[in-house]
Amino acid sequence: MATRSDIAASPVKGGAAPGRTPGSRSADKDDRRRSKLSRRWQRDARWSPYAFVSPFFLLFAAFGLFPLIYTGWASLHQVELTAPTDMNWVGLKNYTRIFDDDFFWNAAQNTLTIGIISTVPQLMIAMGIAHILNYKLRASTFWRVAMLAPYATSIAAATLVFVLLFGRDYGMINWALGAVGIDPVGWQDDKWPGQIAVSTIIIWRWTGYNALIYLAAMQAIPQDLYESAALDGASRWRQFLHVTLPSLRPTILFTVVVSTIGASQVFGEPLLFDPNKGASGGAEHQFQTLGLYLYEQGWVNQHLGRASAIAWTMFAILIVIGLINQLISRRLRASS
Amino acid sequence: MTTTATPPETPIVKDQKRSRLPKSARAGGTLHGGPLAYVILTVFTLVSLFPLVWTAIAASRDNQRLAENPPPLWFGSNLFKNLEIAWKDANLGEAFLNTTIVAGISAVTIVVLSTIAGFAFAKLRFKGRNALMLLVIGTMMVPPQLSIIPLYMMVAKLDWTDQLQAVIFPSLVSAFGVFFMRQYLLQALPDEVIEAARVDGASSWRVVWHVVFPAARPAMAVLGMLMFVQAWNDFLWPFLVLTQTGNPTVQVAVAGLGRGYTPDQSLIMAGALLGTLPLLLVFAIFGKQIVGGIMQGAVKG
User: Fold this and answer.
1) From which residue to which does any coiled coil extend (chain B) (predicted)?
2) I want to staple B228 with a disulfide (CB 3.0 to 4.6 A). Which of A316, B4, B41, B107 is the partner?
3) Å from B161 to nearest chain A CA?
4) Which residue does chain B place closest to A75, by CA atoms?
5) C-alpha span between B235 and B251 (Å, rounded)
6) Contact A170 B232 (CB under 8 A)
């Protein structure tokens, strides 16, 4: 590490005093002092970047990386919530236990369906709203800020409100549906209504945020692309399809990845949406997600080892998603 | 909202130079939105705001009224009474203080550490820089939820349950923050300024203090607000290590109201409203800056 000298090429290109080689052989006192300073300067230039990034990496190692890896170690042990420091080696038993548990597969399936129901409409609506926001508008700041209000609302507060709105007997939504002749829906009792309701909370909180991200990317598209497309006779809709969407591909991929990761972690909404106030995601586990299942195994059934196995399974799934993402983005880059 | 009353009939600005282009060429930020655009935006905004407004409506009623059809659509007279009871029942005074401490420490630490790390990644050359930056981006993709079990073991071992430091320490690090500050400093801090300071003999720390921090101030403010919001709304981890009676954060207190045995829905709504109001206020005041920050963080370079 110390042999590289490209550091000298860094900040000082003008080659002022400190840039002179430290070994200059002049016996002059002044020169020696200068070379001492210069050595200190070089040491500073060489090591200070590491000093600047190290607090982040130290904290990350302590509270991010180490716990993540240690989760894998814990997943091979029996660990009880009541005595979290006593660990008994059980090998892969935690994994076979959860893979044999129907509720695990149920939760995995629910996570997938809630993920799709919440992510796909969310990003599509966000795209449409961003397109509109990209016009010249009056009060443009007002619209942008107003659609961020749900983002400012916490999961806890938002879910508690939606519990009331989705109430079967006196909820606003069933009342509105009743007005057009639809029978009351058991949002908290039935499988698909429950998953749609939970997804609605997620969509409500995140659509405005994603719209802003799309808007930012749209504003970065060079204007002449539209002009030349228009000269070729492309309608506005065709311009959207052939100029806007292709230019947004990296951003779309980015939001898909972030939303997918978010969807795999859904926890607070199904926890608080459960009318029985348990952690099973409804009486029949109908909207229990993997995050909630992890919590139930670890903190209700008190098996931290098993919960660790769930966490690592989720981690493995995310790595697979990450690899797929890599593959797609490489292909995108190759094709463009 | 008043905008819908007078949907601006948009005369396309007569631009001599562009008049030969078809009208459809002026997409992407230069074309005025028509009435339909305003209608759609109004609907979307109403949907965004309605649950919040209705929280206040429900909080101003009583439990009995919330168990009747049709649901209330306008305010009742119990708002302040309910807010007062919820404030006491949910221990919200303490919760506000706790959350302010946690979110404040978390936001300030993240901003400072992210700025110096982001500066190093944006402007300094060092061996392993690209690999380390990739690591930062990689960690953005790993959700913190996967690390909670060992963290919980740590907290149990240190006997930190129900204590604020259990929530503060894991919240001090944000890969997004480093990425965000790097993106900002890449374009906002000219190399020449740093060079000039170094030629004057300034050490790296002096450069950070006298050059980087002043240049980064707008981005630091935005990142600070975003991180404050995130820490304020964080739910899972505080929910695991804090309890309603032991140093709750606002989210723990509000969730406790909902999961407790208070059958009074109007009180629950009053608690939810109180827990949300401070952030709504922040957004009302600094909304423009927050919007700008989110959009800036979105454009990747």
Assistant:
1) none
2) B107
3) 13
4) B149
5) 6
6) no
- DSSP, collapsed to helix, strand or coil, labels residue A88 as strand
Q: What tens digit of pLDDT does each residue of A272-310 get?
A: 999 888 889 988 999 999 999 999 999 999 999 999 999
Is the domain of A262 the same as that of A145?
Answer: yes
Give the tokens for residue A115: 């993920």
Tally of CA atoms within 13 A in the half-sphere of A314 that contains its CB = 35
Residues A13 and A147 in one domain: no
- Residue B177, pLDDT > 60, answer yes
Q: Which of B226, B144, B145, B211 is CA-nearest to residue B180?
A: B226
Residues of A in contact with B226 (CB under 8 A): none
Mean pLDDT on A53-80: 93
Judge whether residue A3 has pLDDT over 80: no
Mean pLDDT of chain A: 86
Residues for chain A: how many in total?
336
Q: What is the ipTM of this complex?
A: 0.85
Q: Give the pLDDT score at B30.
A: 61
Of B121, B153, B172, the CB nearest to A84: B153
Residue A63 and residue A100 in one domain: no
Nearest Cβ partner for B25 among A171, A227, A307: A227
Residue B52 is nearest to which of A149, A299, A312, comparing CB atoms?
A149
Q: For residue range B66-86, list pLDDT tens digits in order.
A: 888 788 888 888 889 989 988
**Assigned domain for A85 exists:** no
Token pair recorded at residue A324: 């797929």
CA distance A44 to B133: 21
B283 with A148: Cβ contact below 8 A: yes
pLDDT band for position A335 (50/70/90)?
confident
Ordered structural domains, chain B, with CATH: 2-76 (no CATH), 86-298 (1.10.3720.10)
B152, closest residue in chain A (CA to CA): A84
Q: Is B53 touching A (CB cutoff 8 A)?
A: no
- CB-based contact, B28 to chain A, within 8 Å: yes
- C-alpha B295/C-alpha B180 separation (Å) is 11
The number of domains in chain A is 2
Query: Could you say which of A132, A204, A251 has the minimum Cβ distance to residue B41?
Result: A132
Give the residue-averaged pLDDT of A70-96: 91
- Quick one: tokens of A3? 């042999």
Residue of chain A minimizing CA distance to B55: A161
Q: Is B208 within 8 Å of chain A by CB?
A: yes
